[in-house]
Amino acid sequence: MTNKFIEEFNKAGGDKFGMIKFTNASYNKSTRVLDIKFIIDAFEMRKFSDDDKNEVQRICENLFGGVKVNVSYIKSYADENVVKNKVVEFFNKNNQMIFRRLKDENLVISVDNSEIIVKLVFDTPTFMMLKAGDLLEKLVEFLDHNFNQFITVETEEIVVDLKQIKAEDDLFIETSISDDSKARIVKVEVGDKIYSRGKIEGIPHKPGYIIDVKSANDNAVLCGKMFAMSKFMYKNKKFDSQNPSNEPEKLPLVRFLLDDTTSKISCVCFPKPEELKQIESIEDGAPIVCVGKVGVSTYDSALSFTVSAIFECDIDYDSIHLQSVKPVPKKYTTVVPKPYMPIGQNSLLDNEKTIPDYFKGKTFVVYDLEATDKLISSAEIIEIAACKIVDGIETETFQTLVRPSCSISREITELTHIDNLMVADAPTIEEGLPDFFKFTRDSILVGHNISGYDYPLIKIYADKYGYIFDNELKDTLLLARQYLTELPNFKLETISKVFGITHENAHRALSDVMATVETLKIIARRM
């Protein structure tokens, strides 16, 4: 950042004041005082003498003759964690989509006395979002106002090694599909064909909800708005250098996201070179309906939709109903909540008896799950625990072990201390879920990494058995990134240690719940 004042100040001060950096100035008309603020590194501040301050004051007064000038200094300190927290803070305020995708592996930060380098590493859709507009310029400006060093922001796109791409059929796990009369469908009016691989003249059946796509399907029809389209060229294995007219050396590959408001899915298609313009003509946000295969990508092991045909369409969004198909149970039958009894969870802040305003007039249910796997796609729930908070007061707890259909591995037993014998007589998730659904009604659901694990996992079973958890969600992991920026990381164990929260039996659901309750209290006091 540079302007006329900085140029004139540097000219008057020479190289003597390179350790301070102008950040902002404001003029108060009523007092006729110009406030000028500089940033200085906390270590440099020790060497910055009163004589230095007086000289800076004199230079500023000379530059603004006739105006009373007040010079102040903001001490800054930069290491990788502090800078990372500031980057997280920026995206939390300016772009929630990117903020929710931020992980440690997306941020590469280098700090020395003269420069801070921030490298943002993302997959193609997020990378395109990052590069759109003036977001990066705003990030540089934000960091420039917070740190003394020169700021450099770099970006890197994670791209598939297209030389390693296999033939289309190799990308997927073949499966047999049976018709499901209970499948939820979207009403669409199909328009002109935009692209097809082979002779596909229409859709074989109505499109389903993207949120209902849970496994491989070789006869999938999905619709939604297309966005984040990107094009690549990959090496054609059939290319013959001796006969170049036969097949081109490189072929196009197009990736995009499809969003039908229930969820999003990553899509890929392999058009011929002469078909590419047809797909590129689709505007960002245009409604389309696609025919193809859903399978497991060899690149990231996630579900991916290989599109064989794309049609224009009009989507009847009123036909999409994400509502509970079962009513709230009238009474608890399998798992009955108990009145809240303190179990030793307390923090250093317990002496602050005033209930934060954030809690008033609200009901929260803080919950946690233990499961047979860290991967949501293959996990089965083995414990549910929750605590209800009404107007800032803990009122009830809900806890049950759950009997899975598979055995519990030694690794999970070592982590959770839950073994197969303990769950042998426990209710199944089908038996316990209605009671948990009843317990959570008319509440805000809270969890630590609830967005990344606990909510998607409970939703799989909720969809299966007809219970829709449409609660507002609050993730204490995301809130901690926003309000507890001094922490080295935002694990529940770290928060508990720093703030003196008793967290015995970590990775047992109720212990984690009560530690999360205390974390929410700490965050609420910061709001």
What does this structure look like?
29% of the residues are buried. Strands 13-16-15-14-17-18 form a six-stranded mixed β-sheet, with helices on both faces. It folds into four domains: 4-75, GMP Synthetase, Chain A, domain 3 (2-Layer Sandwich), CATH 3.30.300; 80-158, GMP Synthetase, Chain A, domain 3, CATH 3.30.300; 185-319, Nucleic acid-binding proteins (OB fold (Dihydrolipoamide Acetyltransferase, E2P), Beta Barrel); 338-526, 2-Layer Sandwich (Nucleotidyltransferase, domain 5). Helix 12 (476-483) packs parallel to helix 14 (509-526). It is 27% helix and 30% strand. Mean pLDDT is 82; it is low at 162-181 and 344-351. The longest helix is centred in the C-terminal third of the chain and has 18 residues, at 509-526. With 527 residues, it is an alpha/beta fold. It is built from 14 helices and 18 strands. Strand 17 (444-447), helix 11 (450-465) and strand 18 form a beta-alpha-beta unit.
